């Protein structure tokens, strides 16, 4: 059989095609991160003529392992093939490559190679993956693979993940993934250009698919100033490359300018591991893990988003804040120039000696503009009009259709 069988479904008025998504988590679960949000939105928005299979881990404890079940998430039904039961719901990183989620999941792909080949090759699926380590395993099954990479950091930059500390292994796996994949997407144009240059024999395979915010969940709402406080928020991991040390110093500098500031942290990281947190502990509200719907509800009473990362892909938290009409003040990243215009949807802070104090001052300026009405939820939201999920995801769905011999 193979991919072609999707074209001739008996009794179908419209040809259908089958796509298998792979990730080591459970899209219905509590894990937070850009990859998890991508997959949740993919499920929510996937076309009616796509038969979707998710291969991952079961967090509920109810699904049979290594068997396909039909599940529902946010009103959409799809097939779910769990390879393991998820017993550790934290976002902590393994203490080495062999203890990482990626290694564990790749090992299960190898262990279940025969079963997966019967399901995927026999069912006529194309595969879509977020981790380069999975590409050669799936390609060895005869499955066409589309690769998507969400983040990239240089070997001289701080990273918490195991591969960040073993960059030479990452380079090797990226090269192999580029060789065996049908298409290879990066999340911003700078990454795409870097990949084309670095892995030039496969330059034609590389393209950009940036991130978005779910527009049915994140929508602009009026600003609220009724409690007299300035509410700043960050949602996500406290990975080293996100520079929590800088973030906490910015909030401390902001407090010196406006004593009525409150800092809201959403995520399961431990800020106490950073000495800089002590100065703002008493004005920090730790909300723990929240899903997208809960974060959207929280943003109704928040004012400004903060980002202090050394590098990112295209940070989804920024897209969500802007879509909700909340400006973001971030350290300068080239890809953010597409959505953050100084004084309009936030500020980008250059990498200068006094960047901590400058970021704090810019947050005060933005807050005053919000109170004056010169920055509105609607004007901030307009900065991401071109980044709608259906438009962006349509690009990768087109690739799958072509792999199945269907019109683009």
Automatic annotation (TrEMBL):
GO terms for molecular function: glycosyltransferase activity. The keyword Transcription regulation does not apply. Keywords: Glycosyltransferase, Transferase. This is Glycosyltransferase. SUPFAM superfamilies: UDP-Glycosyltransferase/glycogen phosphorylase (SSF53756). It holds the Pfam family Glyco_trans_1_4. It comes from Sphingomonas chungangi. The keyword Glycosyltransferase applies.
């Amino acid at each position: 059989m193979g991919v072609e069988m999707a074209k001739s479904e008996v009794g179908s008025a419209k040809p259908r095609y089958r796509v298998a998504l792979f990730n080591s988590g459970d899209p219905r679960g509590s894990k937070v991160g850009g990859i998890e949000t991508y997959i949740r939105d993919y499920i929510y928005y996937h076309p009616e003529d796509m038969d979707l299979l998710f291969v991952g881990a079961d967090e509920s404890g109810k699904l049979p392992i290594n068997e396909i079940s039909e599940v529902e998430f946010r009103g959409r039904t799809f097939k779910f093939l769990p390879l393991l039961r998820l017993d550790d719901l934290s976002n902590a990183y393994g203490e080495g490559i062999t203890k990482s989620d990626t290694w564990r999941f790749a090992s299960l792909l190898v262990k279940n190679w025969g079963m997966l080949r019967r399901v995927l090759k026999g069912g006529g699926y194309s595969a879509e993956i977020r981790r380069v380590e999975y590409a050669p395993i799936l390609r060895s099954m005869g499955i066409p693979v589309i690769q998507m990479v969400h983040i990239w950091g240089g070997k001289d930059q701080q990273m918490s993940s195991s591969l960040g500390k073993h960059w030479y292994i990452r380079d090797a796996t990226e090269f192999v993934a580029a060789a065996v994949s049908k298409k290879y997407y990066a999340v911003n144009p700078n990454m795409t250009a870097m990949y084309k240059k670095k892995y030039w024999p496969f330059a034609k395979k590389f393209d950009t698919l940036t991130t978005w915010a779910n527009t049915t969940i994140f929508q602009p709402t009026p600003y609220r100033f009724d409690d007299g406080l300035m509410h700043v928020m960050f949602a996500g991991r406290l990975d080293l490359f996100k520079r929590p040390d800088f973030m906490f110093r910015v909030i401390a500098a902001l407090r010196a300018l406006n004593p009525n500031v409150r800092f809201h942290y959403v995520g399961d990281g431990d800020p106490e591991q950073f000495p800089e947190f002590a100065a703002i502990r008493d004005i920090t509200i730790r909300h723990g893990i929240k899903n997208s719907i809960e974060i959207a509800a929280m943003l109704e009473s928040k004012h400004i988003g903060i980002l202090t990362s050394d590098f990112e892909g295209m940070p989804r938290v920024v897209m969500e804040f802007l879509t909700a009409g909340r400006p973001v003040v971030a350290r300068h990243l080239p890809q953010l120039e597409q959505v953050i215009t100084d004084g309009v949807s936030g500020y980008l802070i250059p990498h200068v000696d006094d960047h901590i104090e400058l970021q704090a001052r810019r947050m005060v300026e933005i807050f005053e503009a919000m109170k004056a009405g010169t920055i509105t939820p609607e004007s901030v939201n307009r900065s991401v009009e071109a980044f709608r999920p259906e438009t962006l995801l349509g690009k990768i769905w087109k690739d799958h259709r072509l792999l199945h011999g269907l019109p683009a």
